[in-house]
Amino acid sequence: MEEWQKQLRDSLRTPEEIADRFHLNQDEVRKICRVFQARITPHYAGLIKSKKDPLYRQVVPDAAELKENSGANDPLSEDLDSPVPGIVHRYPDRLLFLVSPACASYCRFCTRKRKVGQPDKISARHIEGGLQYIREHPEVRDVIVSGGDPLMMVDDKLEAVLSALRAIPHVEIIRIGTRMPCFLPQRVTPKLAAMLKKYHPLYVNVHFNHPDEIDAEAAKALGLLADAGIPLGNQTVLLKGVNDSPEVMKRLMRRLLTVRVRPYYIYQADYVRGTDHFRTTVEKGLEVMEGLRGWTSGLAVPAFVIDAPGGGGKIPLLPNYIQAINEKEVVMRNYAGEVFVYPQTKARKRPAVHPCLPVTSPM
What we know:
This protein is of the alpha/beta class.
C-alpha cells in the first residue's frame, strides 16, 4: 500500500471520528452527514489550528448546512447538458468528463455535492460510454477530466483513461482538475508525474483557497508536477470567512506563484443548496479584485467569474475602471483611483471609390 493510500485509510470518515477530533456533538454531525458525507485526510486535519481556522470551515460539517434551504441541487444545470452519463458538454469545443466519484476530503461548499461520494451517480462503468461520446464528436478538442477527483484513481486506471483520450485524433488538450496537492499531496509521486508526462499537452488545475494550505508537502507535490513540464493553474472559490479579503487573497495568489502555479479563476461561490453561509456578495468579490489589480503582479491576478446559474457558463466580472467613453476619448481611473484620458482614434470614412483608380464615366 502506498503512502497516499495509507493516508486515505486513516482519514476521519465517520461522524463519530470527526466529532471526537473537533469536540463536536456526534448526533449533530451524524445528521449533517446524512445530507452530504464528510472525509478529512490526516494531512489536512493537521493543518487546522482551531475552530476559527479558515481551513476548518472548508471541510468540517456545520449545522448551517441544514439551517438554510436556498440554492439548488444542480445550480449550474449540468445534468441538462449531460448527453450521456459522465459527460457535461456545454461549450462548443470542450467538455467535462467525470471519471471518479470520490474525493480525498469533501469541501462543504461543493458544486457537485449531489453526486460526489456516490458511485452510482459518477461511475467507472460510464467511462467507456463517455469515451465513445468524445470519439463521435470531432468538435471536442479539449477534455477536462474531473469528478470527484480523478487522482483518487490508481495510476493504472487513470492512465487507461488518459491513453484512450490521447488516442482520439481530435482531442488536442487534456486537463485534469484535482484538489489532491492540497488535501493529499502524498498522492503526487514521481511515478505519477512520470506517467502524466507521457500525455502532453496535459494541464492540471489545482484548488487552493487559502495561503495556509500551501505547506512544504503541497509545495513538493506541485514541484513534481511542474518539473514534469505540466502547466499548473489554480481555481479558487471566494468564501465568506475563508478568503473574502483583499489581503488574504493577495497572499494566496503570491504564494501560488512561488510554487509555480498560475492563478486562473476566482469563482463567486455557486448557488448550491446548503451553502448560503459561504456565499459573499458580488461587490465583495469586486473589492477583492481591486485589491489585486495594480497592487501585485499581473501574473497574480486571475479572472473573477460567476458560473451562471442555469447553465450559462462562466461570465467574467471586472471592477468599473472606465468612467466615461465617447467617440473622442476614454476617461479611466487606475488602481490607485487616479484619472487618466486616452484619446480615441477617429474613424476614417471609406472612400466612395478606390483612391488608386481613376474615376470614369459609365459607357
